[in-house]
Amino acid sequence: MTSQLTGIGVSDGIAIAKAYRLEAPDLTVEKRSIDNPADEIARFESAKSKAAEELEAIRLKAAENFGEDKAAIFAAHLLVLNDPELTSSVTGSIEQGVNAEFALQQAADTFTAMFESMDNEYMRERAADVRDVTKRLLAKLLGVHVSDPSAIDEEVIIIADDLTPSATAQLNKEFVKGFVTNIGGRTSHSAILGRMLEIPAVVGTKTAMDTIEQGVRVIVDGTDGTVLIDPADTEVGTYEGKKEKFQQDKELLNRYVSEATTSSDGQHVEVGANIASIDDLPLADKNGAEGVGLFRTEFLYMGQSDWPSEEEQLEAYKAVLTAMDDRPTVVRTLDIGGDKELNYFSTPEEMNPFLGERAIRLCFAQPDMFRTQLRALLRASVHGNLKIMFPMIATLEEFRQAKQMLLEEEEKLKADGFAISDTYEVGMMLEIPAAAVIADLFAKEVDFFSIGTNDLIQYTMAADRMNESVSYLYQPNHPAVLRLIHNVISAAHKEGKWAGMCGEVAGDPLVIPILLGMGLDEFSMSPSSILKARAQIAGLSKAEWEGYIPEILQMGTSEEIIKFVQEHSK
To answer: Is the pTM of this model over 0.85?
Structure first.
């Protein structure tokens, strides 16, 4: 009999295939006495060598499939594997007469406990890296088989508690038709992966691993978040029809690839892509991006052993600007802190890192690093349509300080004979409610705003967007959020400036009509969302939705606003 699970649909589409469970292997370790420590150390070193070969192969596969920035995690795993402190701890215990497996487990437990006890979120996450590497090594030592997603050679749907970076890097889109996980949310790693691979995905089901057996037929509806287990043939037939309809609709969207984004009453807006590196541009181009609305430069800094040099950054920015030609490219300066950290730089330990020294605040605390990035951006400006954006700006003084540092570096570069574009723009990411309230003051000094709704919503609602227990408060249609957005757009237009949006909300079909009516100039989103957004806007009258805005802004709840949008979008 068919059973059903409900989770969070994070990547649209229908998938029908048999289940492939990614189960954790039995890595139980027993303590044994050994007679020859040298032989045991050699066995440990052999396991390390094999694990290193695997990790390097996975890193290369990840770089090929997803780009170097996505492969950086495996460079970090290789660093953990070859960490001299971890190695010396293991070999020291072996020399005391215990087996390699037990010595490794002891050392790993000590290291993970140390990391997990730290207040810094990034350092706590390093415990997961140690565990991942340890499992790989233990499997080699114990001779235990570990599920190898790269070996899948038939159509399957992955069932897992969660998808680790190691597992996701090995997924072959040809055979992996979808996935279902116990945990996760709309902005989790696995959700982003599903959209990047453009395969149906449902996360946060809580019980998928308890209820879905290996090989059973499964239907995944990534649009509405449902999973059917062992469906009857009639149900399969129904979903085959839905799948075909989804594919037909997707193919129909292709006609919008080369079209400008225009409303039904002839008003043009720009729809661009959020990217992390030049490796993301092919997908952006495939979906007809009119520009890059957010280039997340922090990925240039991750997976390295030190700050990237001015020349390294120059080459990365130049490559993206050249590829985009004259299309606008908004580059966000370094935004680390909170949940994004670097393995070669320790940010301050804070009670609440999301409200601490992050983004522009950290850049001010590390001026040499910041000035290096500014110089690289300025030198790259002659290669395209560059717009520089400062993140996490809360006060006018912060924006002025950042811009002053930029202008100082420009003067130095010109004095040294470097060519600098005279048409680049300087703006700010609008993600702090305080800044949104005084957007009229900022608008006199910036060239543009880009609204970062992921943080704006969580700061406005005082609710961590990664915390499932308060996820109901992540409300893009909340009246307070919409009023702040409206205030920002209105302030920009009053000063003759443009306003964009680079948060996930820019591609939300329940918010797009409102943003169009408010006069948002640029929508930037995941590349896979571009064509759906363009098609939706083509069916909307900007003038009509502009007339609805006063009424919408007087509504009291998200539910009222969502109902209004649904009723007036038909």
So the answer is: no
